Amino acid sequence: MKTALVCGGGGFIGAHLVTRLKREGFWVRAVDLKYPEFAPTAADDFIIADLRDRQEARDAIDRPFTEIYQLAADMGGAGFIFTGENDADIMHNSASINLNVLEACRRRNAKRIFYSSSACIYPEHNQLDPDTPVTRESSAYPANPDSEYGWEKLFSERLYLAYSRNHGIEARIARYHNIFGPEGTWTGGREKAPAALCRKVAQAQDGGVIDIWGDGKQTRSFLYIDECVEGTLRLMRSDFLGPVNIGSDEMVTLNDLAGMVIEIAGKRLTIEHVKGPLGVRGRNSDNVLIKDKLGWAPSEPLRRGLAKTYPWIAEQVKRHAAGSR
Question: Which of 115, 122, 149, 160 is catalytic?
């Protein structure tokens, strides 16, 4: 039987990946600090463990697996990454996880491993113009990420590349671009922009106001969870090492994103711009390389993904409000 290990299997992307692997007939072990928050895990074996601990990582990787997916990280949205208050934890925790997981793989002769890097590795100076950001994979150097989160991701990319060269690890490296969808974090400071805006719109009364950090003209692209999982599996099973972008090339302003959510909700709302952590001015997924190497690229329109995500978050908001009364 094919076997898979999903590190970070209690998180948003990891939980969806576990479900997909089970549908494909894999025996799946997931490992995380916590179980999935919004639905029961589909994993055959779920280990509560701290991969920052070397021994716990070795215990989780106690055999070779057909496929290993390393998604575990200390991460979150702009409200967590760009304040500066969490930089040491982000770098220490995530780097420790990757060092321990790779060394455990080497010791168990586990070869094929996927690593989820991030678009946050791209140089800040290439993302100052919101209309023409540069995110070609080759543009990562000279390195100049705008956050310590991005620097750690870039270090870990190089770590996986080094283990590939020196120890025969068959790594596959993807740079994720703003993944969203149902069963993702939607409140608490670690949520990404689509979830945050869905929450704000769901909480607002018709005719009310929602806030957006900055002037709302900063640009991004957002990828629906199902396409993220599809791209991840295609890269894992290809002969291409990477790194490669896995993201949408449909670039929108945050004002546009908010407008889509408001329209889906059927509400009349006003946007108020306030101060807050912003990140880079513009970012979009350059999909030339993924099309060339995998013969595939994400294609689902942003609006379609939002139409599936907003009702789920609106229901969470409703349940949360009922539980707090």
Answer: 149
**Contact residues for 309 (Cβ-Cβ < 8 A; gap 6+):** 180, 181, 182, 184, 194, 195, 198, 224
Confidence check: pLDDT of 325 > 80? no
Domain count, the chain: 2
Q: Is 163 a catalytic residue?
A: no
Classify 159 as helix, strand or coil: helix
In the chain, pLDDT over 90 holds for what percent of residues? 89
CA distance 298 to 6: 22
Q: How many helices (H) and strands (E) does the chain have?
A: 10, 13
For 146, residues 6+ apart whose C-beta sits below 8 A from its C-beta are: 82, 120, 124, 127, 279, 280
223-257 pLDDT per residue, tens:
999 999 999 999 999 999 999 999 999 999 999 99
| Residues 238 and 255 grouped into a single domain | no
pTM: 0.94
Contact by Cβ (8 Å): 249, 221:
yes
Quote the domain boundaries for residue 310: 182-221+251-280+301-318
Give domain status of residue 88, yes or no. Answer: yes
User: What distance lies between CA 237 and its chain's CA centroid?
Assistant: 20
Classify residue 282 by its DSSP letter.
B
On the question of pLDDT at 295 being above 80, the answer is yes
